[in-house]
Amino acid sequence: QARLMESGGGSVPAGGSLRLSCVASYRRDCMGWFRQAPGKEREGVATIFVGAGISQYGDSVKGRFTISHDKATNTLYLQMSSLKPEDTAIYYCAADRRLPCEFAGTWATWGRGTQVTVSS
Length: 120
Hints:
Blueprint: E1 4-7, E2 10-13, E3 18-24, E4 30-36, E5 43-49, E6 54-57, E7 65-70, E8 75-80, E9 89-96, E10 109-110, E11 114-119
Parallel strand pairs: 2-11
Antiparallel strand pairs: 1-3, 3-8, 4-5, 4-9, 5-6, 7-8, 9-10, 9-11
């Protein structure tokens, strides 16, 4: 099973940018980012089929966030721009050995999360 470690979280003013990283111990076909605010359900942010670079985004982040993957370093990235206070959450990296990459599908491996806080 893959081991994942997120980094890059922090505090940023509304409208700012932040890049999250997730280092994986080895490659998985499907990787993604999820987020969860206190007392709220987990929300799918973005997924990527690593082999083809095909990605999908949740409606709330579409056009503002970009997911990418570096095969050489087994690192997943989430570039976040035009951040809003409602983006505040713990962001989790996830991976699975399956296609297609669907938010609602089973994700076998999870990182421990990194906090993103966006102030007004």
